[in-house]
Amino acid sequence: MLHQMFRMNWKAWRAISAAEQTRIAAAATAHLLKLSEPGHKGEATALYSQVGHKGDLMLLHLRNSVEDLNRVELALAQTELYDYLELAHSYLSVVELGLYESSAKTYSALAARDVVPHSPEWNASIEETLSRQAAAMASRIYPAIPDAKYICFYPMDRKRGEEVNWYTESMSDRQRMMHEHGMIGRRYADHVRQIISGSIGLDDWEWGVDLFAQDPVIFKKLIYEMRFDEVSAKYALFGSFYLGVHLPMEKLGQWLAGSV
Asked: Structural domain of residue 30, as residue ranges?
C-alpha cells in the first residue's frame, strides 16, 4: 500500500489559461482512470479530496509489489498536473492480518507434541498453517478499496518506553488484549471497513490503519471507544490523522475548477 498526500499549488494553477487547465486536467484524469482499472488481484487506486491543512489530494494505491508502487509513483510524476502538486506526505506499508489467536493455537499444539521451536518440523508446521490461512483469507490479504464516501488514515506504534513495552509482554497477554480490542471493532463492522497494514522496516511507524465509512463521525466514535481499552490506553501511540472525501477520477476536472 502507498498513500500519497499532495498539496495543490493553486496560485500557479490559476496563472495558466482555462484551455491549458482543461487539457492538463483531461490528461491527468485519463491517467488516473487507467491506474484505477481493475487489474491483477490486489491492485487498485483511489482518489480522495483531503480536508484540512495537511494536503489537498490523497491517492491510495494497492499493488502486488514495491516495484509496482514505484512504477505508479514515477508514471504520476510524468504527468503535467504533477508540476502543480507538492508531495506533502507519503506512507508505505503491506497489508497485514492479525493472527494472534490462530498463532497461539498453533504454538500450543506444537508444544504439546514437544516439537522444538524453530526446528525443521516446527518451521514446516508453521509454514503449512500460514499457507492454509492465506488461502482462507485471500480476500483480506488482497482487499478491494471499499466504495465508501470517506477515508480516515493514520499510522501508529506500540509503546516501547520505560514504563510499558508492548514487545516484552507475553504472547498470551498480547492475544488477550488484541481480542478485547477487536471486539470493539466488530461492533462497528456494519458501519466501518478497515484495512490494517504493517510498516515496520518500511516507514516511520509500525502500522497503518485505513478506515472507510459513509459517515465521518463514525471514525470519531470508533476510535474514541477504542481509546479506553487496555491495548490502546496503555500501549498505543498515534501519528497524524488524514481525512478525505472520495473523489471519482472522472470528476478531477471539476475539483480543479473548485467544485466537489
From this structure: 2-94
Residues identified as active-site: 154
User: Can you tell me the distance from the alpha carbon of 121 to that of 104, in angstroms, rounded to the nearest whole number?
Assistant: 17
pTM: 0.84
Separation of alpha carbons 254 and 130, rounded Å = 46
Dihedral class, residue 82 (left if φ above 0, else alpha if ψ from -120 to 50, else beta): alpha
The Cα 122–Cα 114 span in angstroms is: 10
Do residue 77 and residue 12 come from a single domain?
Answer: yes
- Number of structural domains the chain divides into: 2
Q: What is the pLDDT of residues 60-113, one digit of tens each?
A: 999 999 999 999 999 999 999 999 999 999 999 999 877 656 666 777 777 778
Residue 229 inside a domain? The answer is no
- Give the pLDDT of residue 102: 65
